[in-house]
Write a structure and sequence with these properties.
By secondary structure, the protein is α+β, with helices and mostly antiparallel strands. It contains 3 helices and 5 strands, in the order ααβαββββ. β4 and β5 form a beta hairpin. It is elongated and about 110 Å long.
Length: about 200
């Protein structure tokens, strides 16, 4: 008995020629994706820090603004005449946080800002007696503070010194306020200054 068989000549590949190209390419893709993932996480972390810093800055600004308004309110409420001015801004009787670059009345001693009350140093603000604390601002642990300096009369002096005319110049003050961000040891602070003028009747 005979049988007719046909054979197909199929191409053969030697396994020894396969060098793991797919594996190497997959590893390369994995490395690239890992780098992209790490970069995305770093970017997200940076954005969170920036958002937090901006939030802390806004809180510090609001605190400083509240202190500035408190200083202006203090002047309007407490400094209504020359006698009040001399009592609060005289070196011999000056109230804590109130200073004078000019004598409030003739013969009174000035009380300039001391070195211990450096407005650019937190310790100067936190030293008892250097500044006035705004106790009504309770949204932060370290409450804002302000100082007031009497700067003298505003404007050009009158030409007539005979006493026939009242000196129309107002009394000028400089208010400096500081506010901090949240936390028991805040790292964000904001300084604000304003000029304030008051008309006052003579003694």
């Amino acid at each position: 008995m005979t049988s007719n068989r046909s054979y197909l000549n199929l191409p053969t590949h030697c396994r020894c020629s396969q060098r793991g190209a797919v594996l190497a390419f997959s590893l390369l893709i994995l490395v690239v994706m890992t780098i992209i993932g790490i970069a995305s996480m770093s970017s997200t972390t940076l954005q969170e820090r920036m958002a937090n810093n901006n939030n802390q800055r806004q809180i510090a600004f609001q605190a400083a603004e509240a202190a500035l308004r408190a200083g202006e309110a203090f002047l309007v409420t407490n400094i209504t005449n020359i006698s009040n001015l001399a009592t609060n801004f005289n070196a011999t009787t000056s109230v804590a946080g109130l200073y004078s670059e000019r004598a409030p009345v003739v013969g009174a001693a000035t009380y300039p800002l001391p070195a211990s009350a450096n407005i650019f140093d937190d310790s100067g603000w936190l030293t008892v007696g250097n500044a006035i604390e705004v106790t009504t601002f309770t949204t932060v642990f370290q409450r804002p503070r302000f100082i007031i300096e009497y700067m003298g009369r505003a404007g050009a002096p009158p030409k007539d010194y005979s006493g026939k005319k009242q000196d129309p110049r107002q009394y000028a003050f400089r208010i400096t306020a500081i506010g901090w961000g949240e936390g028991t040891t805040p790292t964000v602070r904001y300084l604000l200054q304003s000029s304030f003028r008051l008309p006052m009747p003579p003694l």
